[in-house]
Amino acid sequence: MNQPLVATRVAELRDRIVRAGGVGVGIVAVTKNFGADAWSEAKSAGCEAVGENYAQELIAKSKQVDSADRLPVHFIGQLQTNKIKSIFEIVDVWQSVDRASVVTELVKRHAGRAVIGRCEMLLQVNTTGESDKGGCDPTEAKTLVDQARQGGLDVTGLMTVGPTDMDPDKTRAAFRLLKQMAADLGVEQLSMGMTSDVEIAVEEGSTLVRVGTALFGQRPRSI
């Protein structure tokens, strides 16, 4: 990993965000399949958080980077309830909560933790209607948010993934829907936008963008 290069790329990404009208937009550096050094590079370059997709990979990296030396960790991959226990104390923000069973498991772990703390989550919503996309149906969002809040979870926002075909009009519509839902649900964080659609996401109100390849280059198959 080349730290000066990563720093340059982060600066370029921030410039893209500013030119799209973004103010105070956080960068979640997506470090899946990159080594633990990517966590350090992201922190040195001034990113706000790192994003991981796989439980075992996350556990391995957490053993290599001391908790005091790392950025907040966002889990952004598909959540399996049987994996939550193993990563609960590592994850700072759960971005891909999309069904009642996941909420129930997070509530259980939060209630049973030894040290009092917050459990922050973003509800993932499928705003494109694609069957292969993660996220709850928009009609289910309020019920899931209510369940999470009643269980003591800190629901701070919503997350979505743009359409697979990257059609600009569809992308904008998907992001615009998420912003409207956030307003209706009374949450402020909007995690939307990746390398290919950062500008549209920022124009539509994103507060967090999830970017990997634009910062670290082509993603290796495994760490």
TrEMBL record:
Keywords: Pyridoxal phosphate. Its cofactor is pyridoxal 5'-phosphate. It comes from the Bacteria. The modification N6-(pyridoxal phosphate)lysine is found at K32. Residues 24-220 form the Alanine racemase N-terminal domain. SUPFAM superfamilies: PLP-binding barrel. Gene3D superfamilies: Alanine racemase (3.20.20.10). The keyword NAD does not apply. GO terms for molecular function: pyridoxal phosphate binding. The keyword Cell division does not apply. Pfam families: Ala_racemase_N. Belongs to the pyridoxal phosphate-binding protein YggS/PROSC family. Pyridoxal 5'-phosphate (PLP)-binding protein, which is involved in PLP homeostasis. NCBIfam families: YggS family pyridoxal phosphate-dependent enzyme. This is Pyridoxal phosphate homeostasis protein. It comes from Acidimicrobiia bacterium BACL6 MAG-120924-bin43.
